[in-house]
């Protein structure tokens, strides 16, 4: 059974998302709960309405004033700042709100009507309860301006019948469970819905694969034929291919010398967009605490930061490590259900169903990004043209001094991320993404269908699909540290996986070209 979870500080909750299913409140419970502008316009001496009621429930004024100051600084509602920074417990807040409104307070165990949409429920803050023969029929976990409106409505008239209050985490947990099956079923096919011809599963169907196999076999055999003309005919194209690859690298390296580094810029915290961090983990119990600590060190307003971990079902060791050593930053743990294909891009697509940020970053378990990396990326996106879909941060090796193997690995990464990719970006050419420390505009990911779940080199494939759709990828100098393999066996396994993935991607692109020739 698929049981995604949200963990917020010391508490564990569950979360999920799926298809859009609009709902309408009955006239009795019709409440406009959608948030408007943050209450940052309030005078500093006043407490915003969304938190002022807590004074009557024993919360110190100083704590509420601190939350209000953070809200003004970050450009969010005061309740968001108060809860995300851990100044007030989630249950304390919403239990007090229910008492002020004269409404029942629901604890865990309630169920939201199936077919609800996670992001829609999160945005509106209310949903219909499932299987309720009596009262209540609706549950809400309002935020921001909606809290003040509800309190004012309760002051002038009796509380709306049929409505109950739950904590934000429990509300989102129930909304998640309502869409459990749809997310798991849709995740492998998101890219296919945009352009099936570019996807690995569809590209290998039909008569093209045998044709390509025969052509490849003939090409391999021809250089060994006794006929010199045939041998030369086979060897010459291969030589030209490799020469072109070398020439591309030399040109990109030369272009990097003339590429201008983006100036260091900062934008005010109240103008920063909401950011989602996704970290897919598989058999990573040893390093899971490392990424948790790294996330806690990220310098970004917590009310605007969403962290999503994805763990494969059955990977109990990694799940236990995350629960034991997870970040203090409010986060979400999704347990990806068993199913085909069990790949990293499928896990990323599952996470994307829950992502609510305007920007999204992908990290691996061993990554240690610079604390200001998200702020730098957000500032660069704010200045960049809208067609810039992705910013690739530089990966650097932090164990390069261990032995000669790690030293060579560190040199290779420096050449790739500081020179080659930088040159490709300067030439406006497609870039094979690094698989981690990628920062995306969510609108661009939606436009290309996110990741191809059947492609094991999803990073390189996504870079090509973004370029084909007219988007650009740029690099920036922020560093993310990670470990290099320390022995030849680990390096060989890694490189074999990479090379097989790249070869398959190259074959898929040839298949797509032949499909266009044969069937169009």
From TrEMBL:
Record-linked SUPFAM superfamilies: Nucleotide-diphospho-sugar transferases (SSF53448)
Keywords noted in UniProt: Glycosyltransferase, Membrane, Transferase, Transmembrane, Transmembrane helix
Chief location category: membrane
Membrane topology label: Multi-pass membrane protein
GO molecular function: glycosyltransferase activity
Residues of the signal peptide: none
Entries under InterPro entries matching the protein: Glycosyltr_2/OpgH_subfam (IPR050321), Nucleotide-diphossugar_trans (IPR029044)
Superkingdom classification of source: Bacteria
GO cellular component: a single term: membrane
Membrane spanning stretches: 207-225, 231-252
Subcellular location(s) of the protein: Membrane
Protein name according to UniProt: Glycosyl transferase
Naturally occurring in which organism (per UniProt): Methylocystis bryophila
């Amino acid at each position: 059974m698929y049981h995604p979870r949200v963990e917020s500080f010391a508490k564990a909750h569950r979360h999920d998302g799926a298809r859009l299913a609009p709902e309408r409140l009955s006239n009795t419970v019709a409440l406009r709960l959608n948030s408007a502008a943050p209450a940052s316009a309030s005078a500093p001496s006043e407490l915003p309405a969304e938190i002022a009621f807590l004074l009557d429930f024993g919360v110190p004024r100083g704590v509420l004033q601190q939350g209000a100051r953070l809200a003004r600084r970050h450009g969010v509602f005061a309740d968001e700042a108060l809860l995300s920074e851990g100044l007030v417990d989630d249950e304390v807040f919403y239990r007090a709100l229910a008492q002020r409104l004269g409404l029942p307070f629901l604890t865990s165990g309630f169920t939201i009507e199936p077919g609800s949409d996670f992001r829609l429920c999160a945005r509106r803050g209310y949903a219909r309860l499932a299987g309720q023969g009596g009262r209540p029929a609706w549950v809400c976990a309002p935020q921001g301006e909606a809290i003040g409106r509800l309190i004012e409505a309760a002051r002038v008239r009796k509380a709306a019948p049929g409505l109950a209050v739950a904590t934000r985490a429990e509300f989102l947990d129930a909304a998640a469970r309502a869409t459990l099956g749809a997310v798991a079923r849709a995740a492998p096919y998101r890219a296919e819905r945009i352009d099936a011809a570019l996807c690995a599963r569809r590209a290998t169907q039909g008569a093209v694969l045998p044709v390509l196999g025969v052509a490849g076999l003939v090409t391999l055999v021809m250089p060994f034929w006794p006929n010199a003309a045939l041998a030369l005919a086979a060897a010459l194209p291969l030589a030209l291919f490799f020469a072109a690859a070398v020439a591309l690298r030399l040109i990109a390296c030369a272009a990097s010398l003339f590429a201008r580094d983006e100036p260091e810029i900062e934008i005010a915290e109240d103008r920063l967009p909401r950011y989602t961090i996704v970290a897919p983990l598989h058999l990573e119990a040893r390093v899971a605490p490392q990424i948790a600590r790294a996330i806690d060190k990220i310098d970004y307003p917590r009310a605007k930061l969403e962290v999503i971990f994805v763990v494969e079902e059955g990977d109990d060791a990694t799940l236990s490590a995350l629960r034991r050593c997870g970040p203090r930053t409010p986060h979400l743990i999704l347990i990806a259900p068993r199913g085909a294909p069990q790949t990293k891009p499928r896990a990323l697509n599952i996470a994307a169903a829950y992502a609510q940020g305007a920007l999204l970053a992908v990290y691996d378990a061993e990554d240690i990004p610079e604390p200001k990396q998200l702020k730098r990326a957000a500032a660069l996106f704010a200045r960049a043209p809208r067609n810039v879909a992705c910013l690739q941060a530089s990966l650097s090796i932090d164990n390069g001094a261990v032995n000669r193997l790690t030293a060579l690995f560190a040199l290779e990464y420096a050449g790739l991320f500081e020179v080659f990719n930088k040159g490709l970006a300067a030439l406006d050419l497609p870039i094979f993404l690094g698989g981690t420390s990628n920062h995306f505009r969510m609108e661009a990911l939606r436009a290309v269908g996110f990741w191809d779940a059947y492609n094991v080199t999803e990073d390189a494939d996504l870079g090509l699909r973004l370029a084909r759709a007219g988007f650009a990828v740029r690099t920036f100098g922020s560093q993310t540290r990670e470990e290099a393999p320390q022995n030849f066996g680990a390096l060989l396994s890694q490189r074999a996986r990479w090379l097989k993935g790249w070869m398959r991607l190259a074959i898929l692109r040839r298949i797509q070209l032949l499909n266009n020739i044969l069937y169009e």
